Amino acid sequence: MKASLPVLLFLLAALPLPAQIGAMANKGTARAVIIGISDYQDERIPNLQFAHRDARAMADFLLSESGGNIAPENIKLLLNEKATRGEIAMALYWLVEESKAGDRAIIYFSGHGDLENKILMDQGYLLAYDAKASNYMGSGTYPVEMLQKVIQTLSLRLGAEVLLVTDACRAGKLAGSETGGVVATNQGLAQQFAKEIKILSCEPDQSSLEGEQWGGGRGLFSYYLIEGLKGLADSEANPYGNQNLKVELRELERFLGDEVSKWAEQYPMTVGPGSTELFRVDEDTLLALLERRKGHRENMAFATPRSSLPSSGDTIIHPLYQQFQRAMAEGRLLYPENGSAYALFRQMQQQPGLQPLLSALRLNLSAALQDDAQQALNAYLEASPEEMARRWQYDASYQRYPEYLDKAAELLGPGNFFYDDLRSRQAYFEGLVLRLQAETLPDKDSILQLAIRKQEQAIGLDSLAAHAYNEMGMAYRWQKNYPKALDAFERARTLSPTWVVPVGNISMAFLETEKYDDAAQMAEQALALRQDYVPPRHNLAVIAYRSGDYRKAIELAEGAIGIDSAFAKAYYILGKAWEAVDSLGLAQSAYLQAVRLDPKDALANNSLGYIANLNGRYEEAAAYYEAAIQSHPYFANAHYDLGFLYLSELPDYLRAEGHFRQYVKLKPADPEGPVLLACALSLQGEQEQALKWLEQALKDGFRGFDDLRSTPFLAALQHDPRFTELISQYEN
Fold first, then answer.
1. Global pTM value
2. What CATH class has 30-219+267-273?
3. E strand residue ranges, 178-244
4. Fewest C-beta in 10 Å: which of 66, 88, 319, 427?
5. CATH top-level class for 630-731?
6. Residues in contact with 472: Cβ distance below 8 Å, sequence separation at least 6, in sequence order
């Protein structure tokens, strides 16, 4: 076997070419940072009464069976003088350092929030114990912007589930009172920073009350929050609870809205998917709570403002109507089929007494069915990093968009003004799903052709759909039909000249065809449109790497990471560049970060396997190769690498055979595949089969005759006359 064969094992991996792409109660480790400040160091900041008690109650809940029995060492409880800016910053840093993918991070703050001066982009501050009544920016405050970065790191970079609870709408004379600082801060807190779940004590322009009448001295919001989390939100005490022994976000929001608003003009807010499971219900705890409430529980009907309903008839108490409203509130739009809002609407159409409501309900249901798809499309047109990552990693939620849009169009009917638009977007998402599915398959062409037809259908219904032209270009790009891909991208660019995505895709198409000057020029044009759009920077790093300028590639990749630290592919090209300058430790760190951000990154996993193999960590190398294959079963190089590992360092010849057979299927033109398969078979005593595959390799052009005569993997064959005859036949 030729001497370069082991080296080729590690040189076959191609460079990355990026392609466009919850339940809270999880099995990972839960950790919490709980902050409650009633007494402030600066006497000019109004003290609160029970914020510290609310925080302690939250910590006690998390330690309990209902709260998940979180280990005491995994809760940082900061009360009053312990809750300085430095302590808060360190506790949140601890949360980031300790958290990993699948873990749960809980952040609870009860205290003051304010914004001294309304400066553009300033989202306000959480006032720590050592805050000063003025000059928030330079004193003991924790910026909401910094909290945003913590949450984004936890959620997007580390893959942890984040629950943020804030009770910062407190009344009192603060520096920003005259300019609405508390309102502005709470507006900032209400924004969703990443994929976190949020529970806020009230709407931005309201105040959060506290008093002795709640739990002997508690905040109104906090008292009912913990009651709801213990199970009342899921129980019969809540008209909207489904009693499945799981407290879901929508149940808690309705429970808090009902209970808190009985006492004050205070309406707690939630941010996140309503179906999110917050906590499991401990039945003993719930029974005790229900027993305590027995005798003074109110009989609440499903809430619908009377002013929005017809003035005649009893339609609002009709069971079908109530079930429909509940299904809408809970997000059960199409599934489960028997209890979905869509199925209930169809039943309501058969009820004469409900006819006056049907027009409004039809529009409401159609709008709800459109919402997720529209939000995804809006985010894509904005080149949102989160939305781009969803596409690159193929978020399975895309599969539901076409069906939802189909039903939305059906409800409106062909005569509706928006009907063609809905059908166009339906076709667009159908084509997108086909293309994303095709990316991981060995035989892409037939599926990609269907994807292209879907985009043609979308454009036929909406000739100005720049997103459909761009997606058509992506499908042509995966077919390697670059002239048509570039034409489609240019059409998208013409229709939407300020949209950066098609410009970046033009750069990528030039990069894939090794037109590096054109690729670099288009990358610079994309950056002129959006300096914070990372793919063009990544393209420039790849160009530098392929041109042999590894130091420049490192600089460019690190620049991309500095703008978007969650862009996994930049870490991969950074690793390749470090590897090229023999800095394997730095390369490994970069690859590890790529895999943390995208566990399905087959190239990064394979590269980690290579480094582990070089360092003699063979079991670890095998695990990385397996991870690459698990996410991309048709990744030929990973099969080659893993097969060679089982052939040489971790002898398991049957497994080696399996991977080499897969490699031969995926790379039939490479004559090394049949040679390695022959080696694995010979080592298992299958000499007839080994000779057959050796002959195939020689027919395919393999000419490493000396390697075949010397490799120990064919020792059992080398003295067989048939082997000698076969070699002689092709050698001469």
1. 0.53
2. alpha beta
3. 197-200, 210-211, 218-219
4. 319
5. mainly alpha
6. 431, 452, 455, 456, 459, 488
